TrEMBL record:
InterPro entries: Amidase_6 (IPR024301). PANTHER family: EXPORTED PROTEIN (PTHR40032:SF1), EXPORTED PROTEIN-RELATED (PTHR40032). It comes from Aureibacillus halotolerans. Residues 128-281 form the Putative amidase domain. Residues 103-124 are annotated as: Disordered. This is Putative amidase-like protein. Pfam families: Amidase_6.
Length: 286
């Protein structure tokens, strides 16, 4: 990490932990939103660390790197929490900013466009969802990749599907990629790996893996799923899984792309966030 970048991160970490400090760099908005979010929840960041690892260096003025950001924070009741994120960042003449990856355009499930209830005769569609195992899997693989599955460039939905599968969710619909929810190693359904498709599968499935939409994040349980439409344009582009709750009963979530553990569910400090963001809260039946 260059001297300039080290100095910038020292300023950011000091801002997050200490009152009275300010940020002046052009990409300060996510860090300001982060601190504001913690304060609104009655949480105080007591320790912040950032470890950088070079990803690729194209030239002297443009470099990409991974930043492992760790935040230790304390609630009003004294409970300590640790949030972690692995950000892919760019440092160039325009400053230092998070590189947000988006899914490539491909066919997706939408309401009424596919037979989402296609049954797989080789596996029962009735199951008991093991929330503990889904969360255990989510915590174990939050910052790495299970070699039993393909790693996608945008991996958020693939990761969530793996967590649901670890919790016992049955697959069905193979080999039609536009039907059901399944993974076979060499192929997979759109609902397995595409955020928009999983959102509609959860709301439309009537057997096996099913999601019941609830009105509030406070109604969710461990192992439940939150879907995000950052632009509010009807295209759902991210999913997370609930792995814990803070002292206010608010969900803390794990995700891939960007890899996160025990992150506050609302994503107000994400570079993808817009004021038009829409959420769907799904309680997994079973």
């Amino acid at each position: 990490m260059s001297d300039d970048l080290q100095a910038l991160w020292r300023q950011r970490l000091s801002y997050l932990v200490h009152s009275g400090s300010a940020l002046t760099d052009r990409h300060a908005a996510p860090f300001i939103a982060m601190k504001d979010s913690f304060q609104r929840r009655g949480m105080k960041i007591v320790k912040a660390e950032a470890v950088a690892k070079p990803l690729v260096e194209e030239n002297h003025d443009h470099r990409m790197y991974f930043c492992h950001l760790s935040l230790m924070y304390q609630g009003k009741e004294g409970m300590l929490y640790k949030e972690e994120r692995l950000q892919e960042r760019v440092f160039d003449e325009n400053g230092d900013w998070e590189h947000y990856r988006v899914e490539e355009e491909q066919p997706v499930l939408s309401p009424g466009s596919e037979d989402i209830d296609s049954r797989d005769p080789h596996e029962s569609t009735r199951f008991s969802y093991n929330r503990r195992e889904a969360v255990r899997y989510a915590d174990y693989w939050w910052n790495s990749y299970n070699p039993a599955y393909r790693e996608f460039e945008v991996d958020c939905t693939n990761y969530i599907s793996q967590c649901l599968r670890a919790g016992g969710a049955p697959m069905r619909g193979q080999p039609n990629r536009g039907k059901g929810w399944w993974y076979s190693g060499s192929s997979w359904s759109y609902s397995w790996a595409v955020a928009h498709s999983l959102r509609w599968y959860l709301s439309g499935s009537t057997a096996g893996l099913q999601g019941e939409e609830v009105a509030s994040p406070l109604d969710l349980q461990l192992g439940d799923v939150i879907c995000y439409d950052f632009e509010g344009d009807g295209r759902w582009n991210h999913n997370t899984i609930v792995t814990a709750f803070d002292e206010n009963g608010e969900p803390l979530v794990n995700a891939h792309t960007s890899n996160s553990r025990m992150r506050y569910w609302a994503y107000e400090d994400s570079t993808a966030y817009t004021p038009n963001i829409q959420y769907k809260f799904f309680h997994i039946k079973g």
